[in-house]
């Protein structure tokens, strides 16, 4: 009796489903409070394995980072209080799909808090 050849298509389907469900793929609303200033920006991320790439802010500034388990980190150079600034975000993806952690204004050496919620 011959076995049906379904294992390869099922593997391809499973890989496609896993890729489509990368937890950080999509649009995120990021809110932060640092250096006595509150701000908000939208980010679009694509996760590939442990790599994270995307854009943030009104000018679609490039963002890049990494994912290690529930830990998420990315860096973006964007406008902060009207001036270019390097911002590092480092947080934890919680069970509700919310990221919370520390944002650092790299040039000033000042830390604050941020949260991010997936919007799409």
User: Total helix count?
Assistant: 1
Q: How many distinct domains? A: 1
Low-confidence stretches: 6-21
- Quote the beta fraction: over 45%
Q: Helicity, in percent?
A: 10-25%
Largest sheet geometry: 8 strands, antiparallel, barrel
Q: Could you name the CATH topology?
A: Lipocalin
Determine Rg (CA atoms, Å): 18 Å
What is the number of E strands? 8
What does this structure look like?
By secondary structure, this protein is mostly beta strands. It has one helix and eight strands; from the N terminus they run H-E-E-E-E-E-E-E-E. It has one domain (23-118): Lipocalin (Beta Barrel). It has an eight-stranded antiparallel beta barrel. A hairpin with a 2-residue loop joins strand 2 and strand 3.
Describe the secondary-structure layout.
Blueprint: H1 7-20, E1 26-34, E2 37-48, E3 51-56, E4 61-68, E5 71-80, E6 83-93, E7 98-105, E8 110-118
Antiparallel strand pairs: 1-2, 1-8, 2-3, 3-4, 4-5, 5-6, 6-7, 7-8
């Amino acid at each position: 009796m011959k076995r049906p050849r379904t294992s390869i298509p099922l593997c391809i389907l499973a890989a496609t489903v896993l890729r489509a469900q990368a937890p950080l793929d999509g649009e995120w609303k990021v809110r932060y409070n640092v250096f006595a200033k509150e701000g908000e920006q939208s980010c679009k991320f694509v996760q590939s394995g442990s790599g994270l790439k995307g854009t943030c802010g009104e000018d679609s500034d490039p963002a890049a980072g990494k994912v290690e388990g529930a830990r998420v980190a990315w860096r973006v150079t964007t406008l902060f209080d009207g001036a270019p600034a390097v911002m590092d975000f480092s947080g934890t993806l919680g069970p509700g799909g919310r990221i919370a952690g520390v944002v650092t204004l790299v040039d000033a050496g000042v830390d604050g808090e941020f949260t991010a919620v997936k919007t799409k």
